[in-house]
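=== Given protein ===
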Amino acid sequence: MSKYIFVTGGVTSSLGKGIIAASLAKLLQARGLSVTIQKLDPYINVDPGTLNPYEHGECFVTEDGAETDLDLGHYERFLNIHTSQANNVTTGRIYQTVINKEREGAYLGKTVQVIPHITDEIKRRMLLLGEEGKYDIVITEIGGTVGDIESLPFIEAVRQLQWEMPDEDCLVVHLTLIPYLKAAKELKTKPTQHSVKLMSENGVHPDIIVCRTERPLTTDLRKKIAQFCNVKLDSVIEAMDASTIYEVPLKMLQEGLDITVLKKLHINGYAAPELTKWKAFLDKLKYPSGKVTIGLIGKYIELQDAYKSILESFVHAGAMNECKVQIVNVHSEFIDKTNVAEKLSGLDGLLVAPGFGYRGVDGKIIAVQHARENKLPFFGICLGMQMAAIEFARNVLNLEGAHSTEMQPDTKYPVIDLMEDQKKVTAKGGTMRLGAYPCAIKEDSLAYKIYGQSPISERHRHRWEFNNAYLEKYEAAGMMASGKNPATGLVEIIELKDHPFFIGVQYHPELKSTVENPQPIFVNFIKAAKEFAESKNAIKSTALQSEAI
């Protein structure tokens, strides 16, 4: 029988429930237990697929093609396992299921209500992963903050499970904030007390309180929190700010969070945590031997979470190369031919990010041209790959006005076109080409050198594709389609032969990068950027020596 842990949040949002849940899961996994994590989101959207990245950050796509919350990315990066459709449930999906059942007559004429029908469906989803028999522990992160109106049905579902299940099978971890008031020069526990009181009024009693704080908690403060929040002293866990999210599991290990959880769940005979690879990764991350500067060209750069998986993939690849990766965000809307050299000066590599819509497209195309002509290591993802194809068509193939039909439906040269099976699709949610698909790679290519095998499998999220009607012209001019879908011939990877590192991919490689298995294109891109930086520095050094002579 699986045991269940629920992670809730109080006082304020963005405290890091996902990181705490993933860190706890990592520690339990490191002790030999089988663990999975799911996220329950209180918004009414069926999934985040139709949300603007400014609203909710990136949309994380699973192997089975589910558009999910970005926290699932953290779960995969920490645990090195795949999540699925079942790992992310929203209020919208809950209500959609209940309403569909009501329309089918499943409730036999009963009045359908929040309690018991909505809460029963929430509980069913909460327990679903545990019923598979694959996991010792299922961790459920409840989105939002205790006290939010939209979260109430989820909190009520947790209350019912706490009452229905034995104490040793159900555990509630509450993440809260201990703010530091500079004027008073002290940490304040009152917001935490109020948060726990609010939970208690809703019938849920936290078993463990994790305190996010800028300053260390004194013993007296821990005792105060324990006494007024009605938990044992060893159940008050300090969560100090960390320099990187990957330090959090070790901080939680020091605090004994996993031991406290195991004791409360009556799990005995667990092994010592095996974290050798994790610690080696952290050592490389914290003590790099070099540095590269990468330009991230996108149109959502104001919100860091919009490109979360890309940024984390750079962290993994940097550690693999024992190199600090410094990201320079460049808004594509503000790039033009007069300032591109200035905007991209000092870079050792350029990544053009994915996205949808026409805004910022011209700047991306100009940036790609700069990278191609100046032999700057280039990596394009999804729309970034399509921009590379458009730039090549315009400036090498001389197809003036070549474009994507997404931005210019009547373009004379539609080198990027809507996929055939997407032309009759009208609904927006969950209708793109989603999830993992195979890609066959040519052996005499950069892509094969990077992956070392064929076929590979990568995750997708797109409607438009490279137009194969122009492929012969591209390859004759030096741009190779080095990876294709074996069933449809859809171009998955393009690369330039006469460039040190120029590759674009239709899929989203960032979605599969983890601490233990960094994504190979990112690793090789950073390696190429490092070589570019070393070459640049060598030229600079030679020039200085010549001046001195």
In short: The CA atoms of residues 21 and 349 lie 34 Å apart.
